[in-house]
Write a structure and sequence with these properties.
By secondary structure, this protein is mainly beta. The protein has helices at residues 9-16, 23-26, 74-77; strands spanning 41-49, 53-54, 59-69, 83-87, 91-96, 100-105, 117-126, 136-137, 143-150, 156-163, 180-189, 192-193, 196-197, 201-205, 208-213, 217-225, 229-236, 246-250.
Amino acid sequence: MPNPVNLSLNLLKTATGAGTPSLVACNGGSGANIKISDFAVQSVGTPTISNATLAFGEVATMTLGFGGEGSRFSRIKTNTSNFTWTAANELTPITNSGHTRTWRNDYNPGGQSCSSQVSRSLTVKFNDGGFNSAATGNYNATLTVPVTLRSPPRPVINVVLLTSPPRPCVGGSFPTWQCVGGKIKINVDMGTYGGVSATSATIYRNNTVHTTITSNQDVEIGGLTAGTTHSIHVVNNYGCRDTNNLTSVTIPAYVYP
């Protein structure tokens, strides 16, 4: 049976969030044959978590367990005021049921720091104002659960073809032959990491938008002048940028026939 030491109506009023110190009020305003020991608990256990490694956007539920619960202890363990929860800034709270909370992983460092993970923690402390202070275990103790948060993916790009301008030369002449019509073809993987895939990506040439795609594919950038150098980068819908560093892609020189 739950330990009756320290049980009092005034403490129970605080523990249940009731308006007045009466057993009926503490039971939500109704009920018969209510005993104060119905609200007690024998022990405060340790927290469990549904998933300790979270992909970007994934949720996890953490629950603090109890042992030897009285038949009306749910009035206390669902009172959010009896629990102190803390979480890293990257974890967004979704639901709060007192002894159970759910968070979503929103860790996104952005840019070239994506496709990475960090170690963080969640903590919980149960204190119902002293009503169940005689419970064994972890009453009023801060309990910690480590979690790993994964970021969204960064894209990957590779040059698959460089083409010099075709003959006859357009837009140039001897001796420079700055002809127009060269092409760069790149393969764009929008990115997948931790089971999460990007749904779109924007390709930039010299920091100017070239095009936006919604699937992994080859992208051709044409109309380029022979011998010119270009910077190519890609940013996906998560704000993540490739790390391939294609900062000096040079169109082959025009070959005079």
